[in-house]
Amino acid sequence: MYIGFLDSGIGGLTVLREALALLPNEDYLYYADSVHAPYGIKPKETVRRYIFDAVEFMVGQGIKALVVACNTATIVAANDLRTRYDFPIIGMEPAVKPAVEQNRGNHKRVLVTATPLSLKEEKFQNLVARVDDEHVVDLLPLPELVEYAQHFIFDDEVILPYLKEELAPFDLSHYGTIVLGCTHFPHYREAFRRLLPAGVAIIDGSSGTVRRLKNLLDEKGLLANRNEPGRIVFYTSGVLEEDPEKLQKYRELLTRK
C-alpha cells in the first residue's frame, strides 16, 4: 500500500523529497489537486470539500497513511479527516515554535510567510498566541509565490523582484528567522537566501513532518519490509499523470535544492 501525499499542487513535493531521503523503500502516491489550486485564496468550506474528495479518491487507490503536505489543507481539514479515517494522518504546521525558540533572548524577530487563508485561520492564530510570548512574530502572505510554483516559474528575473517588493516593508536586519509556512515556498529557498542578510535562518516544517510519519508507521508496524527502493505514482485531481513533460518536471523538483 502507498503512503499518500496530498497538496493543492506541487508544494508537497518539498515534503515528499524529505520522505524519499528518510523512507526510500516505501511506495508513494502523490496527489496534486492542481485543478483547484491554489487553496490559500479560496473560501474555507470550498477547500475542505476539495480535500475530502481528494482523500476519498486516494483511499480507493489503497493508502496506509496520509501526509497532508499542505499547510492550508492541514489547518482547514486535518482534524476532521482524523475523525473519518483510522489510518495515520500527518499534517503540516508552520515552524513557528522552533523559530521563536531559536531566537529567544537574541532580540531578533521572526517572519512567517504563508498563504492568506493559513495566516487568518483560528488554528494558526492560536499557535502564534501560544508560543509568541515575546511578541516577535510578524506575518507575510505570499499568494503569488504559489501561483509561480504552479506554473513552474523559478526564474530569478521574475521571483527576485517579487520577493524583494514583498519584503521591502520589513527591516530584515531585525530578523533572526524566516519561516516558510507553505510547502510551495521551499522551492524558492535560494531566492530567499539571496535577499536576506547573512545569518538569517530559513526553516520549514518538512523534516519534522516526515520524522513524525516514520515514527507513526513504526509504532503501527506499517513500515515497508524490503530493501529495494519503492515507486511513486502521481495523480492530478483524480487523473493518473501520464504527461512525460510534467512527470519530468515533478522528478526534477524532487531533486531540486
UniProtKB/TrEMBL annotation:
Gene3D superfamilies (alphabetical): 3.40.50.1860
Q: Does the keyword Membrane apply?
A: no
> Which GO biological-process labels does this protein carry?
cell wall organization; peptidoglycan biosynthetic process; regulation of cell shape
**Which residues are recorded as binding substrate?**
7-8, 39-40, 71-72, 183-184
Which InterPro entries does this chain map to?
Asp/Glu/hydantoin_racemase (IPR015942), Asp/Glu_race (IPR001920), Asp/Glu_racemase_AS_1 (IPR018187), Glu_race (IPR004391)
| Keyword flag Isomerase | yes
User: What are the catalytic residues?
Assistant: 70, 182
PANTHER family attached to this UniProt entry: GLUTAMATE RACEMASE
Function comment: Provides the (R)-glutamate required for cell wall biosynthesis.
Q: What is this protein called?
A: Glutamate racemase
Q: Which organism is it from?
A: Hydrogenispora ethanolica
Chain's gene name = murI
